[in-house]
Amino acid sequence: MKRIIITISLICVFLTNMQGQVDRSLKFTIEQQFFSSWLYFRLTKNPMFSEEIRNPPRGEMRRPWQHLLPPEYTYDYQPDIKILPWYDESLNSGLGFEFFGYTDGLYIIEKGDGITGVKSEFNVSILERIPVDTMHVNVYDSIFPFDNRFLVYVSNSGEIGFYSGNIGWDNWRNLNMSRGLVGVAYIRGVQFGLQRLRRMPDEWITGVRENLPQYDGWDFAFADRSFLTYGRLLITAPPNQAPDHLEFLFYSDHPQKTGDEEGVYYEFRYILPTIINDISERRLEKRKLTPEEVQKMRETDLRYFVDPWQRWEVIIEIEEEME
Question: Could you tell me the end-to-end alpha-carbon distance of the chain, in angstroms, rounded to an integer?
Fold first, then answer.
């Protein structure tokens, strides 16, 4: 048995290393384009800047570095980010089969809060660059939530486009993916840690449409996991318009999310339009439910999208005690 376990472990390590390989020149290209695009988005979609700064008169250049980073943050610093070939976690469950193969050319970018720059020097004795200084900058993080994961697509011709995260999204036609709701949410959802996306059963769709008339005629799917809720997440979009507008919805009485007492339920909607003037248009809205709406939530198909936070927090506490 030990021999089998060791063999499996070695295979897992090998596969992880294979998944983690990114060509050095490609990594550098993605890194540079990501950083400039991220700063550009931070400047032009920031409602705290004046319109003149965000959209200067013709002939004047936008200067994200000048407005967002301190003077000592020079080009000698490179952003501390990870770039890995994207391996969708849901493929492990066997529920990502309809997208198998579509991960070619897709890379996930991960970073911490704000941005950390690393200054390095080339060490001749070891023929490697070694860090000599780091600088961390918070860049309006409070109005750019969920800012740690991005998805970039590199075409066969080397063109780069961004499709998930707090960054300008490229035209969906440039991505070799379906325009269907599940396919679009599969990509956009990387920012929010969506996993195990599935088409919604017809009987659920009927129940949801009856109880959410504002979404009558919209397309529906759901995810089993996300950063937004411990339970299922309802995914919806206007018919055939998923690349232009997505919404995520769930219900919760978690005091840390609602700011209210346990047992007081709120509806949470994360609205994600593609074309925006400022970041406030991609936003989380919460609304307190009436007693009648709470009863409807509990007795109808909406119950599938209630945040089961108590159960999961108990499991987490038990695991922490066992460590």
Answer: 25
CA distance 45 to 307: 31
Q: How many domains does the chain have?
A: 2
In degrees, to the nearest 5, what angle opens at C-alpha 262 toward C-alphas 257 and 264? Answer: 85
Residue 254: partners with Cβ closer than 8 Å, 6 or more residues away: 262, 307, 309
From 256, 110, 95, select the one nearest 182 (Cα to Cα).
Answer: 95
Average pLDDT, the chain: 84
Secondary structure (DSSP) of 290-312: PHHHHHHHHHSGGGGGB--HHHH
Residue 11 contacts residue 17 (beta carbons within 8 Å): no
Q: Judge whether 283 and 270 are in contact, CB under 8 Å.
A: yes
Q: Say if 200 falls within a structural domain.
A: yes
Q: Which of 177, 208, 224 is the last residue of a domain?
A: 177
CA 227 to chain centre: 9
DSSP string, 58-96: TTPPP-HHHHHS-TT--TTEEE--EEEE---GGGGGT--
In a domain, 8, yes or no: no
Q: What residue numbers bound the domain in which 251 lies?
A: 195-323
The pTM assigned to this predicted structure is 0.84
Indicate if 151 and 23 belong to the same structural domain: yes
Give me 111's structure tokens.
């970073």
pLDDT, tens digit (0-9, with 9 covering 90-100), for 86-125: 875 554 444 443 444 456 788 999 999 999 999 988 777 7
Q: Is the pLDDT of residue 10 over 80?
A: no
Q: Which two tokens stand for residue 170?
A: 């490229």
